Amino acid sequence: MGNLADRLKADLHYREGMRACINCGTCTAICPAAEHYDYDPRSIVELVQRGDEEELETLLKSDAIWYCGECMSCRTRCPRNNTPGLIIMALRALAQETGFFTESEKGRQQIYLKRTIGHDILKTGYCVYAEGLGTDTHPEQGPIWDWRQNNWKAIMERLGANYQKPGPGAMRQIPEEALNELHKIFEVTGAFERFEKIEQFSEKKAKQLGLQWDDSLNNEYIKQLYNGNSNENSNN
Amino acid sequence: MKNRGKQLIWQNYQKDIADDHFFYVRSCIRQNFFPGAETTFLRILKDVLNKDVYDDPSHTTCTGIGYHTDIVPLETTMTVVARQFALMTEKGYKNFIPSCVTSFGLYLEILETWHNYPEVLEKTRSNLMLATGRSFVLPENIVHASDVIYKFRSEIAKKAKYRLVNIHTGKPLKVVEHIGCHYAKMFPDKSVGGAEFPRVLSGIIEEWGGEVIDYPERRHCCGFGFRQYFIKANRGYTFSSVKKKFDSMSPYEPDLIVTNCPGCNVFLDKGQYVISEQEGIVYSRDGYGIPVLTFEELTGVVLGFDPWDIGLQVHQVSVEPLLDKIGVKYDIQKKYTDKNNRLLGKPVKPTLLKTL
Predict the structure, then answer these.
(1) A135 within a domain of the structure (yes/no)
(2) Is domain B146-334 in CATH 3.40.50.11810, yes or no?
(3) Which of A101, A122, A150 is the last residue of a domain?
(4) Which helix (H) or strand (E) holds B266?
(5) Interchain CB distance below 8 Å, A110 and B70
(6) Which among B301, B276, B274, B300 has a CA at the least distance from the CA of B288?
(7) What is the pLDDT of residue B7?
(8) Which residue on chain B is closest to A225 by alpha carbon?
(9) Tens of pLDDT along B261-282?
């Protein structure tokens, strides 16, 4: 396993994102997540730089590492060329490796992302496949989205898409051969290992919390993490 | 002296944008939400500018959203990106143009990682060969699709049917340009104009007669934040960011917002509906809100394309007040129809935000 600090330092995101932090707080000043959440990238980078094992474990188990929106505004501003956003990516990867992600409310949400975005990529070749994603789960998309959903195919065709057909164009059917190659890339490069860890640790946590668990998005565990908010996280 | 200093700084943020022969890779969000924008972009390049663009049926997502929700490891994303480059290589192209700003930033990030760690590039090559049997050459030129429109902005202006001028007052339209974070914040020297004052959209707007608004939260993120929107419990992050931007820009009374990132367009458009329902606020005097167009859509409008061919009907905020200011002729009866002009029903009206 190795210790947490060493594993973090081996991560390319960490190596690209962490030089030497002078603790000026510019990243926190510019950070959209710090406006919304009780979140302070400066103190996270400082903690990581210190490299204390116990503190790192507490951090990996906390909500704090899941507040960042990965907009990377911090990268532009840091006077020492650190990128707190990349350090966050390394922390999130390690939290998923170790299973610590299930110890926080926001970390537990990874299972939903894996079962939606992860599955869409492999099944369709698109990160997001919005047909059928209605305003029941996405009410912010408004009445225009209901009209889109009710007439999905007709509107796609009206706007020149090659909807679910072979050949080039928007929303084309991505060839089976390309999907097979994506699958094989995921296999060779460790994506399935991460997927499997997200599944296994999430199932274990669901049982520990006494929440119903199955392969769908409708089990009690996922419904709670998708909709539920303890309201302990926001500044607003 | 002062001006010369500024010119020298500006030179750091110039970049080469290829002239022709482009390999186009599509955006997952744009295809789902604004398929007409990509159709319009290709029509402009092929039919208006007479450029050669290849749209490969076999390319896929770059995995960018999976990568930025942290479910897809870097090594996987690098290999999928390598596959896109392999398709470009096989088809004989060297100039790579992504539609998506998240993808654009990701391609730049990966190219930098490969530059800094040549052994990672070699590992990616062997992963790709093992998984697909493909190999690749790095692109000679990689720019965002909006950079291409920027490059040809003068040529487009000469062919334009309309200008960004209010025909009733003769004054320039007041335009907010919103640049996706991953266009310039990670690699300012790979953008046109840098991170603070990117010229990619403001240069287009001014060339076509509009006036760009400089407002305090101009460079604030739209609030997408990947996991912050995808999970319902986190969406306060997204819409508080949207509100912050609109509270900041609305005193300047913009006529229009233009975006180069597909995600930003979704949230700045739909966010106005959310704020109207939740807070009872509409950010325009006429009650219709501020129209939000993608850069492809705006280009199509000034070139005189039919607004409903471009896809302006899929935005929540109605575009007609803007079209009326520019003087664009349109047939309102065709707004909500299919390709055979059959009415597809009409969207329900929001509680407060006026729509047409």
Answers:
(1) yes
(2) yes
(3) A101
(4) helix B262-279
(5) yes
(6) B276
(7) 63
(8) B233
(9) 999 999 999 999 999 999 999 9
Q: Tell me B49's DSSP state.
A: S
Contacts of B338 in chain A (CB under 8 A): 151, 154-155, 157-158
Looking up tokens 């704090």 gives A64
On chain B, the residues whose CB falls within 8 A of the CB of A92 are: 70
- How many contacts does A have with B, using Cβ atoms within 8 A? 268
Q: Does residue A118 share a domain with residue A83? A: no
Backbone angles phi, psi at B24, to 5 degrees: -100, 130
Chain A hits for B58, CB-CB cut-off 8 Å, are 174-175, 177-178
A227 Cα to chain B: minimum distance (Å): 5
Q: Domain check: are A112 and A215 in the same one?
A: yes
Give the closest of B241, B274, B347 to A140, CB-based.
Answer: B274
* A140 min Cα distance to partner chain B (Å): 6
- By CA distance, what is B349's nearest residue in A? A143
Portion 190-219 of A in contact with B at CB < 8 A: 190-191, 194-195, 198
- Tens digits of residue pLDDT in A26-44: 999 999 999 999 999 999 9
pLDDT in tens, B211-254: 999 999 999 999 999 999 999 999 999 999 999 999 999 999 99
In sequence order, what are the residues at sequence separation of 6 or more whose Cβ sits closer than 8 angstroms to the Cβ of residue B1? none
Please name the helix (run of DSSP H) or strand (run of DSSP E) that holds residue B86, with its range, or none.
Answer: helix B74-90
**Predicted ipTM?**
0.97
* Domain residue ranges in chain B: 2-145, 146-334
Residue A181 within a domain: yes
Are A157 and A84 found together in one domain? Answer: no
Task: Give yes or no: residues A123 and A221 share one domain.
Answer: yes
Is A95 in the same domain as A117?
A: no
In the block, tokens 């990616």 appear at B124
Tell whether A130 and A183 lie within a shared domain.
yes
Same domain, A23 and A97: yes
Smallest CA–CA distance, residue B269 to chain A, in Å, is: 9
Residue A236 lies in a domain: no
The answer to whether A38 contacts chain B (CB < 8 Å) is: no
Same domain, A77 and A135: no
> Torsion angle of alpha carbons B226, B128, B145, B45, nearest 10°?
-140
* pLDDT of the residue at B10: 63
- CA nearest to A150 within chain B: B344
Query: Which CATH number does B2-145 carry?
Result: 1.20.1050.140
Domain ends where: A59, A84, A101? A101
Q: What pLDDT, on a 0 to 100 scale, did the predictor assign at position B12?
A: 62
Q: Do A137 and B344 touch (CB under 8 A)?
A: no
Distance CA A188, CA B32 (A): 29
How many domains does one find in chain A? 2
Model confidence at B191, pLDDT cuts 50, 70, 90, reads very high
Structural domain harbouring A210: 107-227
A234 lies in a domain? no
